[in-house]
Amino acid sequence: MLQETLDxxxxxxxxxxxxxxxxxxxxxxxxxxxxxxPANLPRVSIHHEPEAKTCECGCELxxxxxxxxEKLLYKPGDFTVERHIRGxxxxxKCQTLIQAPVPPQVIDKGIAxxxxxxxxMVAKFHDHLPLYRQEGIFSRAGWAIPRSTLGAWVGACGVQxxxxxxxxxxxxxxxxxxHADETPVAMLKPGNGKTHRAYLWTYCPGAFESMKAVxxxxxxxxxxxxxxxxxxxxxxxxxxxDYSGYKAIIAKGVTECGCMAHARRKFFDLYAxxxxxxxxxxLSYFGQLYEIERDLQDxxxxxxRQMRQAKAKPVADAFNTWMAPHRLKxxxxxxxxxxxxxxxxxxxALTRYLDDGTLPPDNNHVENQIRPVAVGRSNWLFxxxxxxxxxxxxxxxxxxxxxxNGHEPYVYLKDVFTRLPTQPASRVDELxxxxxxxxxxxx
Length: 443
Hints:
Blueprint: H1 2-21, E1 43-48, E2 61-75, E3 78-91, E4 97-98, H2 114-125, H3 131-141, H4 147-172, E5 177-188, E6 195-205, E7 215-219, H5 224-231, E8 237-239, H6 247-251, E9 255-257, H7 260-274, H8 277-294, H9 301-329, H10 335-345, H11 347-350, H12 364-380, H13 386-404, H14 409-419
Parallel strand pairs: 1-3, 5-8, 8-9
Antiparallel strand pairs: 2-3, 3-4, 5-6, 6-7
Helix pairs in contact: 1-4, 2-14, 4-13, 7-8, 7-10, 8-9, 9-10
């Protein structure tokens, strides 16, 4: 798995350098000829001919040959080779040679079609299949694509998709309410072959916002500086847990909004493990608050605030009044004291949602988005490098956002890979999951 990470990293670096150094009209350096696609795979021919068969001088063009490039098309369990045939037409009088242009590709001069690239990316970052397992799957379909090749594709695609992720980040930072959470991911340390704990931070617009999106940010540490670097000048309402890493950005003007689910969980664990009567009473208050919330999901923000003030605030006030004397009765340092202290010391942040109908009561929305990472961890083993972790975060952001908007990830990425090479930078927002519409099928 380390080798496939290195292959992907090298490809990403090369792709990025080519984007920085390419000059208009200057040909790229020649690359070695690749191995021909297996002759036993079925083939379908796609012809590309000039629209006009008349030269600018007025004479008829004559077809004198063709150039053929082969692309690998994949449908689950089945390979097909696309033969792109570009006829050569020449004017008998002025010898002008005319050919249809080469169809643009996400990976310049690559053999992979948009469908195959989408399959590899979704399998790796959504279905959590390492490249060596994909190599075996492709072998059963007719050709064992080397994992080094798959790794190179992953690296190149990660670079091409980064502008979409950057635009997605800008879009969510325009919202006033954000969720944030983080989860550990093992990362291989360069040189000694050992792993250390890195972190994947997940951000998304508030649960009641109309925009559905997720942006993941991979970092080497859990430092709060990472939160500040991501949010930048944003100064809205942040729904998060009590982790100290968020305190620095809160001190700079971000409004802290607590998570009732975290507070409830501490009492739930006490009740489940020790049958604590105090925890049982606390859970009854949380139950009343969440029962009120069930009726407020589909109302507007103002109506939600008014109903919370009328129904939930009296319950919350009674809960707070109940906790204070019980805290005096339990010894410092005990589990029940810690549970009570968590709610009492964060009460203003925990109940801020009662006065603001745009806020949900907890951070469950982002925790649901970060849950697939826990599934992937057992299959990734580790993120092979900082670049590999950042690439995974970028692709997972698009895939998870596509799912939130009701899109099938494979269909979405296939269309993005098809359109991205010719999509103007000024219109990249059209390809973001919350804006995306499948390109119309030509008849």
